[in-house]
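Format notes (please read before filing issues)

Several people have asked whether sequences and structure tokens are stored in separate files. They are not. Every record keeps both together, in the order shown below: the sequence lines, then the token lines. Line labels are part of the format and must not be stripped during preprocessing.
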Amino acid sequence: MIKIDMKKIQVFLLFITLGFLSISNACSGKQNSDKSTQQITNEKVIPTTTAKIEFTLKGIDKGMAKMIGLFSDQYYIADSVMVEDGGHFVISRDSIYPEGYYYFILPGEKNISFLLDEDQHFKLTADTSNLDLTAKVEGSLCNKFYFDTKRFQDEINPKMRPLSQKLAKLAKSSPTSEEFKKVYKENQKYENQYQEHINWYVKNYPDNLFTKFKIAGRNPNVTYPVDSEGKLDTKAQVYNYRNQFWDGFDFTEEALIRTPAFSNKLKRFFTELIPLNQDSIIKYADILIAKIGDNKEYFKIVANWVTLHFEPGHTNLMDGEAVYVHMVENYFTPEKAFWAIPDQLDGLNKRAAEMEQSLIGKHAGNVTAKGYDGKMHTFFNSDADVIIIFIYNPNCEHCQEQTPELISFYNHWKNKGVEVFSIAANTNQKDWDKYHKMFNIPWVDVFDKTNASWYPKYFVDITPEIYVIDKDRKIVAKNLKVSQLDVSVGKALDKNK
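Then the structure lines:
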């Protein structure tokens, strides 16, 4: 695999690299009920200008404790402190930490998570027997709620989990059966208990960071629609779930950017709930950005995340370029991309313009270049119903792996209306000669030392690159492996029947 970077345009990143730390199950954890919340309705959050948090975690060894923060999907070290005898340590500074979700990596491979809102003077005690479930908080309403709910969920989750698993199995086999209805009713009982628990906070403390955090992270209820044959309608199920996924998320609360509620949702939305094709990703990126409204921080993160996640060379999406072009043209403008300098925007838009020439559905560019036989060849002089353009680099290992497979493909399809043309990219005459002879390439194979005859017409980020062009000389598929060509070529040929 060879990366092609002829114009040496480097895409800028939004995020300052903060240092990634692998953390498992950072925001889940089991949780338990406590009636103490009913006794603290008169407490209020009193903002502080400094931070002083005292921990006493019995059973924790002496050593260094690292305080980990989160910004979007990046974890970083926010602070560190030495743990004294008895598991005692104090984290403090002259200003408050950014509001959000944090956790400590403790000696002995233990960790404990917590929330920081405007009130950053409090005490937390716990025991290593179970740090989350034994945690007691003095002085932080937000963290009282946080650990009370952890204890509540610790009670209810073991009851809900087997019911949810059984419900999922029954939904696939018999969603209209009496057994399904019975299990659904039982499961719903616990779902309602959990919702009642959270709704208490919503009613009494709607502006508390914990309340906003729990609402933001809450998933929609799973529905079980059936089709006309009485079977589970999975498309309708996913559609309903996807369209309610961001309900209740407060895009005016920037502290949620620094919690897993936002980063986990963003990733899940685009990687699990949306069909993996460029049209769907573009559609739902626009929908989500519209939901964000005027909040610049959320807009900046989502616009960058989608653009970079589906950037060519970083995605298996067939036409990631279409997503990239759409995002750059619509959201990386001087009026909207407030964080970028003009040179950065110019580079992004120039790169998008290069990609736009060879998106799926566009008329393909014709190429005229000198072939190995010394003659000039024009690709679209061919009367083949389907043309495959294979762009390779002689020193690319993946190209060397794919070329023999493409030869086998060509031998099978060449008498069925399919032609192959190949282009040696970013190389020299000597390496091209060697490569052509090594594989005895049977189709028209061209080389232009300037790359000018083809590069403005076919965007290539990584070699090998394959384009499938139909009878109308439109691009119908790209970014494929040779093993995927049969399906795309078969569809293109079927269109001509």
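For reference, the curators noted about this record: Residues 141-173 form the longest helix (33 residues). The chain has two domains: 18-273, 368-494.
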